[in-house]
């Protein structure tokens, strides 16, 4: 079924459980993404894929784009919902549907396309980090007048280690070699969290400590880095909206293969 009404429609594939804090202040992570990406006249739907909620195959054509969120789960895992999500991504890729993957979403896209995802050998990256955009990305988004470096909130210990030959790395940092990638003109992954506020980050650090996922020293360093840097939220919003709504000048981007191995 195709979207014949002319009204843009998008779906958030929710891969994380909402904390009470995020639900109360932001309407859950779905609300966080809608606040960043939605524009007047659009319809946004949510599918809790961790609970087995997926769009029907017959309804995929209704959507102009999909957003895959972060998650506490491993993108290289074998949970049923992870395998089902991999299958869905392959269907959407064959349909050339726009897909924006964030953190876990970025990693699961890399895996679905034939890449390799694993724990980072340098451990957690939590806080605010500056990443470098490729010249080809800056050229394709010249109308946005983006700087060569942008700050973004990070919270991950896994990363894409290798992408398939058809993918292009379009941003990197001194911590992570594949901070962003594109695949054709319809798939883009971002390792960081353009949708996060500092409040969400600080609350998440507290949750990670409570679950013994991180040590106090890592938490202290993350809070210090968050205090020193401001994420470039408006620039990231413009970048993500431009990609998802089909406004990239993809013909001005050079295609490059990239293998990141330490």
Automatic annotation (TrEMBL):
<protein>
    <submittedName>
        <fullName>Gamma-glutamyl peptidase 5-like</fullName>
    </submittedName>
</protein>
<dbReference type="GO" id="GO:0008233">
    <property type="term" value="F:peptidase activity"/>
</dbReference>
<keyword id="KW-0963">Cytoplasm</keyword>
<dbReference type="InterPro" id="IPR044992">
    <property type="entry name" value="ChyE-like"/>
</dbReference>
<comment type="pathway">
    <text>Secondary metabolite biosynthesis.</text>
</comment>
<dbReference type="InterPro" id="IPR029062">
    <property type="entry name" value="Class_I_gatase-like"/>
</dbReference>
<feature type="domain" description="Glutamine amidotransferase">
    <location>
        <begin position="34"/>
        <end position="197"/>
    </location>
</feature>
<comment type="similarity">
    <text>Belongs to the peptidase C26 family.</text>
</comment>
<dbReference type="GO" id="GO:0019760">
    <property type="term" value="P:glucosinolate metabolic process"/>
</dbReference>
<dbReference type="InterPro" id="IPR017926">
    <property type="entry name" value="GATASE"/>
</dbReference>
<keyword id="KW-0378">Hydrolase</keyword>
<dbReference type="Pfam" id="PF00117">
    <property type="entry name" value="GATase"/>
</dbReference>
<dbReference type="GO" id="GO:0005829">
    <property type="term" value="C:cytosol"/>
</dbReference>
């Amino acid at each position: 079924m195709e979207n014949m009404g002319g009204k843009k429609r998008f779906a958030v594939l929710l891969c994380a459980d909402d904390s009470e804090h995020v639900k109360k202040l932001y309407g859950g992570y779905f609300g966080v993404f809608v606040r960043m990406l939605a524009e007047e006249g659009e319809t946004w739907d949510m599918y809790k894929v961790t609970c087995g909620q997926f769009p029907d195959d017959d309804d995929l054509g209704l959507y102009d784009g999909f957003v895959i969120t972060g998650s506490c789960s491993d993108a290289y895992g074998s949970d049923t919902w992870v395998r089902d999500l991999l299958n869905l991504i392959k269907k959407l890729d064959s349909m050339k549907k726009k897909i924006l993957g964030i953190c876990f979403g970025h990693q699961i896209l890399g895996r679905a396309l034939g890449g390799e995802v694993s724990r980072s050998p340098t451990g957690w990256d939590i806080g605010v980090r500056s990443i470098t955009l490729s010249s080809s990305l800056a050229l394709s988004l010249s109308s946005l007048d983006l700087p060569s470096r942008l700050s973004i909130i990070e919270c991950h210990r896994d990363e894409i280690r290798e992408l398939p030959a058809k993918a292009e790395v379009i941003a990197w940092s001194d911590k992570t070699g594949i901070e962003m990638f594109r695949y054709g003109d319809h798939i883009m992954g971002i390792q960081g969290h353009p949708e996060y506020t500092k409040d969400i980050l600080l609350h998440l650090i507290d949750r990670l400590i409570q679950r013994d996922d991180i040590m106090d020293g890592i938490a202290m360093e993350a809070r210090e880095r968050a205090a020193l840097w401001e994420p470039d939220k408006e620039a990231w919003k413009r970048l993500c909206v431009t990609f998802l709504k089909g406004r990239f000048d993809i013909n001005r981007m050079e295609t490059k293969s990239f293998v990141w191995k330490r």
